[in-house]
Amino acid sequence: MSNLFDLSGKTCLLTGASKGIGKSMALALAQHGGKLVISSRKIDALKQTAEEINSIIGEEKVFPVAANAGRKEELEYLVNETRRIAGKIDVLVSNAGVNPHYGPMSDISDEAFDKTMATNVKSNHWLCKMVAPDMEERGGGSIMITSSVGAFESSLHLGTYGISKLAVIGLVRNLAAEYGPKNIRVNAICPAIIKTDFAKALWDDDTKAKEAIAKIPLGRLGEPEDLQGLAVFLASSASSYITGQAMTICGGGYMWR
Predict the structure, then answer these.
(1) Of the residues 77, 102, 161, 241, which is catalytic?
(2) DSSP state of 119
(3) DSSP 142-199
C-alpha cells in the first residue's frame, strides 16, 4: 500500500503548466516520482518553472517544451519531444485553456468564439489521440483534462467559456468509454474559483470575493495547491477504477454536481 501514489517510472506531459494550477500539479507529480515535460506558449516562463521545481525536488525531472495548444502541428511536436526527452507517455494533464472574451455571449466575436472552442475542446481531442497509442502500448494510462464548474451553470460573463468546459466533460466521458478497454482512464478536473492570474477577474475584487466565499462551506477561495492531491491521485494506481468522471474542486460550493 505504501506505493499507492508512487509515480516512479511514469512519464507525464502537462500543458498550461508554467504557472497557476498547472505549475502546482507539476510540482506534486514530480515530488511523487514522475518524470515531466511541461508546456505552455512561452519558453522563458517554462524554463523558470522547470528550474524551480527541479530545485525543490533536488534532481532534474522536469523539462520545458514550448507549444501553442491551439495548433495541431505544435502539439505533435510537443508529443514527439516528450517521447524523446522522457519516454513514452503514461500520464497526460491537459490543462491549457483560453478565455478571450469576458461579457455577454451576444457581444462575442466569431474569432473569439472559435478560439475558445478550438483551444478548450478541439485541442484536447487532438492531444488525447496523440498520446493514447503510448498508453495502450504500456498497458494503460491516465488522462486528465481541466474543465470548470462553469460547465454546470449559465453565466452572463463567461457563457462561451462555460459551454466549452461542458463540452470538455462530454469529450472526457466519450473517451473514457472508448479507451476503457485499453485500461486508459480519462477524467475531468473541474475547479471553482482558484486564486490564479487566469481567474483574477473573479477574485481580485473584495466585493466579488466576499460574495463567492459566502457560498462556499469551507469559507475560502481555492489555491493552486488544492489541485495537487487530485492530480497525484488520478495519475497513480490509487484511482485505478475511476474513469469518465468530472471531479469538482470547489470547497463545497457545487455539491451534487
Answers:
(1) 161
(2) I
(3) EEEEE--GGGGS--SSSHHHHHHHHHHHHHHHHHHHHHGGGTEEEEEEEE-SBSSSTT
Mean pLDDT of 20-48: 97
What is the distance, to the nearest Å, from the Cα of residue 73 to the centroid of all Cα atoms in its chain? 20
Q: Which residues pair with 92 in a beta bridge?
A: 13, 143
pLDDT at 128 over 60: yes
pTM: 0.95
The three grid cell numbers given for residue 10, joined into one nine-digit string: 511514469
Three-state SS at 246: strand
Helices (H), the chain: 20-31, 43-57, 72-86, 110-117, 123-137, 159-179, 200-203, 206-213, 228-235
Starting from the edge strand earliest in sequence, which strands make up the sheet with 246-249, in order? 62-64, 35-39, 11-15, 91-94, 141-146, 184-191, 246-249
Can 161 be counted among the known catalytic residues?
Answer: yes
Q: Which residues have CB under 8 Å from 148's CB, separation 6+?
A: 161, 162, 165, 190, 191
Q: What span, in angstroms and rounded, lies between the C-alpha atoms of 66 and 58?
A: 23
pLDDT given for residue 1 in this prediction: 44
pLDDT digits 0-9 by tens, 200-230: 666 667 787 888 899 999 999 999 999 999 9
CA pair distance 49, 97, nearest whole angstrom: 18
